[in-house]
Design brief:
Length: 213
């Protein structure tokens, strides 16, 4: 694959997300969306042709700037220790997709304290959840190891219903990455409300943002 054929993604200031040579664009239910060599995806939350940009960012005066360096969002990481494995959770990166609770609620249960209890399941179960986490908010490590994410195959984007863009294996340059960010699996804000643009911080859920808005 030449550089001209390589999938690329870039964030345009106060505008859209530009993607080129994308091999896969699909909805979270698995339906595939039409691909073009170059596409503009909405990130202001106001397009009437979501997930694609229709120029609404200009009409609404969208401010897509990164967080103010003088008042950045809290980049806090919480660690939960088990007898064989530890799990680490980044509050800043979490998009509230709830994939963890859908798979292994015995380990990841937001109604309990602590909400992550590694010893309530197997190492394989923890790995499954870390792999399914679209935002890269979860990492894990065995005793004596460094925290890590899990590799995912293939480049592409999944459009989460009423949520962010789930991106895999496409690096964005010139953005502010959180300390624990996974550059191969992350989520980009689509509602225009995140305080950690261009990344999602879960605000869409707090504000009840929807695709049909």
């Amino acid at each position: 694959m030449t550089d001209d054929e390589k999938p690329t993604i870039a964030v345009r200031e106060n505008a859209f997300i530009r993607v080129a040579n994308l091999p896969r664009l699909e909805n979270s239910d698995g339906t595939e969306l039409e691909l073009k060599p170059v596409m503009a995806l909405c990130r202001c939350g106001n397009s009437q042709n979501k997930p694609f940009c229709d120029g609404s960012h200009k009409k609404v005066g969208f401010d897509g700037s990164s967080p103010d360096p003088a008042d950045p969002p809290k980049d806090k990481i919480l660690s939960y220790e088990g007898s064989e494995i530890d799990v680490h959770y980044s509050l800043l990166l979490c998009s509230h997709a709830a994939e963890c609770g859908k798979r292994h609620v015995e380990i990841f249960d937001s109604k309990k304290r602590p909400w992550i209890q590694p010893d309530n399941g197997t190492i394989e179960a923890v790995e499954e959840v870390v792999r399914a986490c679209p935002s890269g908010a979860l990492r894990y490590n065995g005793k004596g190891e460094e925290p890590k994410h899990l590799d995912l195959e293939g480049a592409g984007i999944v459009v989460e219903k009423n949520g962010p863009l789930r991106v895999t294996n496409m690096d964005i340059e010139e953005v502010n990455w959180a300390s624990a960010a996974d550059r191969k699996s992350y989520v980009l804000c689509r509602c225009g409300l995140s305080k950690n643009k261009p990344f999602c911080d879960g605000t869409h859920k707090d504000e009840g943002w929807r695709d049909d808005s």
